[in-house]
Design a protein that fits this description.
Elements: H1 4-11, H2 21-39, H3 41-52, H4 56-81, H5 86-106, H6 111-133, H7 139-164, H8 168-185, E1 205-210, E2 217-222, H9 225-260, H10 264-288, H11 295-312, H12 318-346, H13 353-417
Antiparallel strand pairs: 1-2
């Protein structure tokens, strides 16, 4: 049997810090630098075609390799970011990303090695920023702030880059610029808690149990391996969920055009409005914080998202498709932030929030291929049903893990208050 203080130490929540402008700006900026390649991938493909004179397939595979390197590197260095080397990882990663993307921007003949170096470096930024998100109090609100800053900046970048041009200098130069900004701000990246915060890790969850003889309530301990299992399960659930979500995003143009006659202009409206919906969702989460808990909102969001995914496979009107697509993407954005908050609540060191963001990139890099394969095998309706059912199935383990995350955080907060 262990005390509440053991629980608090295991959760690492005693070391959480309040949100301050320098630390929050550094964390969010580094996250943007790490994820910018994902958002600029369509522009990167065009820039690669221009610089190396490759066809679209070869250029796409190079960009996919870049994103996969970001994901693999992020997963590899994530354990270091849960300890005292977080800033070092961020600095080395961003320095490599700056060098690689700058090389790709200035020397078109060296785009291939430049992108691979830059992609690998970006993985350090993804892992370090993801781990740093767990250092703040109220992970739900912080996840909302991170989502708001990310989508806000990305919206501006996506609008500005095509205006200045899609040549290697502009596209890869933008990636280098944000890597430089992140590198400058690494000084303010929140530290991981001291290593001895893991002491007493015999406990990770506490459950109230009524003692029949006295009618009193005592706390029963669950071994810390429960949190380890929950953490790994969260990574698997999130990866599968992310693949199902991004597959729809990747196939949206084809799906909308073939089922409803959606035009290119209509697709542009759908994508732009989806970004705005994500911004509104971020604001809502910032305002709500943790008042609704995590489990119920996450389960509801996954079920609602599953319904919307299925529905999009059976509509024939382009306007209805756009409305459903925007609604789905708004829910997707909020659910994404709840997943981040859940991972942060499991451990303040960032043991799970660090690799979480890297896991997402694995699916993002492969979803165009995965989505096309499902459509080819099952058709559009079968594709939509498969994605929807995936959300329904994953809602159960996601809810259970969110319960564990919330209880850990509350117990540690109660220990601090005592």
């Amino acid at each position: 049997m262990s005390s509440t203080s053991d629980l608090a130490r295991t959760a690492g929540s005693t070391a959480r810090v309040p949100v301050r402008v320098p630390t929050a700006t550094a964390t969010f900026a580094i996250a943007i630098a790490g994820y910018l390649g994902v958002n600029l991938s369509p522009y990167m493909i065009t820039a690669v075609q221009t610089g190396l004179r490759l066809d679209v397939l070869a250029a796409s595979w190079l960009v996919t390799a870049t994103l996969l390197l970001t994901a693999i590197t992020g997963l590899a260095v994530a354990p270091l970011c849960a300890g005292g080397r977080r800033r070092t990882v961020a600095r080395i990663g961003l320095a490599l990303a700056l060098a690689g993307f700058l090389l790709a921007a200035l020397v078109p003949a060296l785009i291939l090695p430049g992108l691979l170096l830059g992609g690998a470096g970006a993985g350090g930024a993804v892992a370090a920023s993801g781990a740093a998100l767990a250092a703040f109090r109220n992970p739900d609100r912080v996840a909302g702030l991170n989502g708001l800053s990310n989508r806000g900046v990305i919206t501006i970048v996506l609008a500005v880059v095509p205006v200045i041009g899609l040549a290697p200098l502009q596209v890869f130069g933008a990636l280098a610029l944000f890597s430089l900004i992140g590198l400058v701000l690494t000084t303010w990246l929140p530290d991981a808690p001291a290593a001895d915060a893991h002491a007493g890790a015999a406990v990770a969850e506490a459950m109230p149990i009524v003692v029949p003889a006295t009618g009193t309530t005592r706390t029963a301990a669950v071994p810390s391996r429960t949190v380890t299992v929950a953490g790994f399960a969260l990574l698997v659930v999130f990866a599968l969920w992310a693949v199902s979500e991004d597959s729809l995003w990747a196939m949206a143009g084809v799906l909308g055009a073939d089922l409803t006659g959606l035009s290119d202009e209509g697709l542009g409206i759908a994508l732009s409005a989806s970004t705005a919906g994500g911004l509104l969702g971020s604001l809502a989460l910032i305002l709500v914080g943790n008042r609704l808990g995590r489990a119920v909102p996450l389960v509801v969001l996954l079920i609602a998202g599953g319904i919307l995914k299925i529905t999009q496979g059976f509509v024939s009107d382009p306007t209805v498709f756009i409305v459903l697509f925007v609604a789905w993407n708004t829910i997707y954005a909020i659910a994404f932030m709840y997943f981040v908050a859940t991972s942060a609540g499991l451990d303040a060191h960032g043991r799970w929030s660090g690799p979480l963001l890297a896991v997402y990139l694995v699916g993002s890099a492969l979803t165009p291929v995965i989505g096309a394969a499902i459509v080819s095998a099952l058709g559009y309706q079968g594709f939509a049903i498969t994605l929807g059912v995936t959300s329904f199935v994953l809602a159960v383990p996601a809810g259970v893990i969110a319960v564990i995350s919330g209880r850990l955080e509350r117990a540690a907060a109660a220990e601090v208050a005592a």
